[in-house]
Structures are given as C-alpha cells and as structure tokens.
Design goal:
It contains 8 helices and 7 strands. With about 260 residues, the protein is of the alpha+beta class. Helix 5 packs antiparallel against helix 6 and helix 5 packs across helix 8. Bound molecules: iron/sulfur cluster (SF4) and FE2/S2 (inorganic) cluster.
Length: about 260
Amino acid sequence: MSHAASKNLSLTLKIWRQAGPKQPGSLKTYNVSGISTDMSFLEMLDVLNEQLIAKGEEPVAFDHDCREGICGACGVVINGQAHGPDSGTTTCQLHMRRFQDGDTIVIEPWLAKAFPIVRDLVVDRSAFDRVIQAGGYVSVNTGNAPEANTTLVPHHVQQAAMGAAACIGCGACVASCKNASAMLFVSAKVSHLANVPQGQGERSKRVLKMVAAMDAEQFGNCTNTAECEAACPAGITLSNIAQLNREYMKAVMCSKE
Ligand code: SF4
Ligand code: FES
C-alpha cells in the first residue's frame, strides 16, 4: 500500500482573539510555516502557540482533551463550518492534508447565546450539562453488566439506542444551526434512554424536564434545516428529533407527571 508523502504547508490563519467574556474580540492574522500535512488541526494550533510563546505573546486558548473524537471538547468553526470541511469528523480528527499550501484558514469559536465565549476559541458549554442534569439519567441501579440475553432488546431498537448514544456533546449542532437550536443534542439523549428498557421509568418526566431545561438555557427553535445533522461528527440523525417530538407530545398528552 502506498502512502502520499507528507508535505510542509505555509498558511495564513485568521483566528478569533478575545481576552475575556466581556472584552471586545476580533480576527487576528498569523502566518505559520512548516506545518506537516500529517499533523492534525490541533497540532497545527500547538505549533502556532509554541511560536507565540517564543515571541512572548499570549497563546491562543482552545478546548481539547482526548484528541481522538471521543470527548467532544475540541469544537471550533473552520472556514465557516463547525469542525471543518470533513463530514463525521471532529476538529481533533481533521488532518492538515485537507488544506493546500498558501491557504487562508478562518478559525472562530462556536457562536450561540447559550454558549458564551470564555476566551479566544473557548466557549462555556455548561448549558449542555444542565440539560443533562435535568433528566439525562436513569434512577434504577443498573449494577454490573448482565449476561447479554437477560433483557431482550430487539435489534432495531438496540440500533436506535446505540446510534443516539454516539452523541459526544460537542455542540456543533448548536453552532451550525441558524437558530442555535440544541434539538439534535437533546433528541440524542432523550432517544437513547427512551429506547432502552432501563430508561422507561422516567421516560415522560425526562423529556418534559430536558425540553424545559433546553428552553431555559435560551437555545433556539428547530426549523428543520438539517445543518445540525450535516455538522454532527457522530452521525446523529434527524430521526432522533422526530422521536423527541413524539416523546414530548406523548408526555404532554398522556403523562401524569
Ligand atoms: S448531536 Fe452531534 S453535533 Fe450535537 S452535540 Fe451530539 S455529537 Fe455534537
Ligand atoms: S479533543 Fe476530544 S473530541 Fe476532539
């Protein structure tokens, strides 16, 4: 198997710099060179930050943790697209081979009222945590992993639950939506637990509480433009939003909660 030889890129970066939540922000231009096409996007930012530190300048603040597409920490908007140009890819999984020598790359934070900017590319996504705290749990003791056939779950139901469980809570769905709606995120969490036997006890209470928490955090409404689905690195589909709407209607009309 042959591999494309790595190349070095020189790039112009336009990066949102903002010293604090109440400070004015603006795009600042930086030139970086010697960026290997084998590097990840975050490694490219590491190189820039090393250069800034060597010059006595403030490094660019950006969120990251696992760098493996698991934790959901690393979201930025790259050339207008949440997590950049590749589908099903987090910012940390994006490689510099996706760019050409001489390219200009614009890098901005998630922009949403419910995600206030902390500094530079870092936003406060604790609104997601509060939505989860409102109902994204089960109160039954699930104990140790049971034998696989103890509780029978039909394959298509298990597939729906596991598909929804893939959400990493990154917030790209909010950042890519013109209404800054959190419906894809909330629908993934609601669908996941609504589709497993352990989630039945709180099924109605969960959807009512999580939708109320979502509204209280001032996320916008869903108008079915599907930008969220296109931006989602975890493949969460709009069918989860359809299920969220069904779960909500059923809870409003039939639940005693
Ligand atoms: S639904 Fe997708 S885009 Fe939204 S938080 Fe979950 S993984 Fe991220
Ligand atoms: S750093 Fe964890 S998903 Fe990117």
